[in-house]
Amino acid sequence: MAAPDAGKLFVQFAKVGLSGFGGCLPWAQRALVDQLRWIDQKTFTELLGIAQVLPGPNVCNLALIVGTQFAGWRGAAAALGGLLFAPCLIVLALGAAYAHFGHQPQVHAALSGMASVGAGLLLASALSLFRGISRRRVDVLLAMAACTALGLFGWSLWQVLAVQVPAALALHAYTGRRDG
C-alpha cells in the first residue's frame, strides 16, 4: 500500500476527530491499524508510547507523529488539522448551547451519561492496547507496576517514567543476557 499523502491524512484524521466523542484514541487505533492498515498494532502501541510522554494531548501528538512519518511537515499539519477542525467548531456550538440551556436538568443527565461512555471507551482502548505489548513476564510486570503507581499510588507520569525507564532497561538487559 502506498503511503498516504497530506490530503488522505487530513480526511482520515477528520473522521477520527468526528468519531471521538469521549476520546479519539480508540477510533484512531481502529482507523490506522484495523481499517486502513497504515501501521500495525505493535507500531501503533510504540508510537502511542512516544505520544504519551510528550506534552499535549496524546491523540494530537499521535496525529503529528503519524503525519510526519507519512508526509513530512505537510502530513503532520494535515493530520492535526483534520483531527481538530470539525471538533473545534462543534465545541464552540455546544459551548454556546450550554450557555443558553445549561441550567436544565436534562442537560446535566445527558452529560453524566456521556462521562460513562467516555470511561467505557477508555477502558476498551486500554484493553486493545494491551494486545500490542509483549507477553513476556517482565513486560507484563512493568505494565502492572505502572498501572499500580499511577492508579493506586497517584504518582505522576514523570515519577513513573523516572523509575520505570531505568528498571525496564535493567530488566531487559538482564533477561536478554539470560535468554540469549
Overview of the structural elements:
The chain crosses the membrane at residues 77-101, 107-129, 141-161. It is a multi-pass membrane protein. With 180 residues, the protein is mainly α. It folds into two domains: 6-133, no CATH class; 134-180, no CATH class. 82% of the residues lie in helices and 0% in strands. The protein has helices spanning 6-19, 25-35, 41-53, 58-101, 105-131, 137-152, 157-179. α6 runs antiparallel to α7 (157-179). The longest helix has 44 residues, at 58-101. It is globular, with a radius of gyration of 19 Å. 19% of the residues are buried. The mean pLDDT is 89.
Task: Report low-confidence residues grouped into runs of 5 or more.
Answer: none
How many β-strands, per DSSP? 0
The domain tally reads: 2
Percent of residues in beta strands: under 5%
Largest sheet: none
Task: Please provide the ordered H/E string of secondary-structure elements.
Answer: HHHHHHH
Search tags:
Chromate transporter, transmembrane helix, transmembrane, cell membrane, mainly alpha, 180 residues, 2 domains, 0% strand
Gist of the model:
The protein has 180 residues and is mainly alpha-helical. The chain contains seven helices and no strands.
